[in-house]
Amino acid sequence: MVISDTGVPAQHLSIDKWGAETMKRLADGWCSALDRETFMCTIYENRPWICREFEMGSYECKDERAESMEQSN
Predict the structure, then answer these.
(1) Cβ proximity of 32 and 12 under 8 Å
(2) Taking 80 as the threshold, does the pLDDT of residue 65 lie above it?
(3) Taking the CA atoms of the chain, what radius of gyration do you get in angstroms?
(4) Which helix (DSSP H) or strand (DSSP E) does residue 73 occupy?
(5) What residues does 8 pair with on adjacent strands?
(6) Each residue of 3-56: pLDDT tens digit?
(7) Burial zone of 48 (CB within 10 Å; 0-12 exposed, 13-18 middle, 19+ buried)
């Protein structure tokens, strides 16, 4: 969920069923801001708070990814 205004470009935002802004996920479940070739964030300077808090590869990151993948299946 995008909690604060960090300047995330509109094309990377979705509105959930409760009206909250979230990062847009593509059909494969990955964030729309992720470059599939480099696996780097294309909006790093404007990434949302949650991306700033969760270190890539941390247990929190892995748990969140696993939960997201379960929900998309």
Answers:
(1) yes
(2) no
(3) 12
(4) none
(5) none
(6) 777 789 999 999 989 998 889 999 988 899 999 899 889 999 998 888 888 776
(7) buried
Residue 73 banded pLDDT, cuts 50, 70, 90: low
Own/partner contacts of 49-57, CB < 8 Å, gap of 24 or more, are: 49/2, 49/3, 49/4, 49/6, 50/1, 50/2, 50/3, 50/23, 51/23
Q: Where are the domains of the chain?
A: 10-72
Q: In whole angstroms, what is the distance from residue 44 CA to residue 28 CA?
A: 21
Q: What is the DSSP string of 5-41?
A: -----GGGEEE-TTS-EEE-B-TTSSBTTB-TTT--B
Whether 25 and 31 have beta carbons less than 8 Å apart is answered as yes
72 or 23, which is more confident = 23
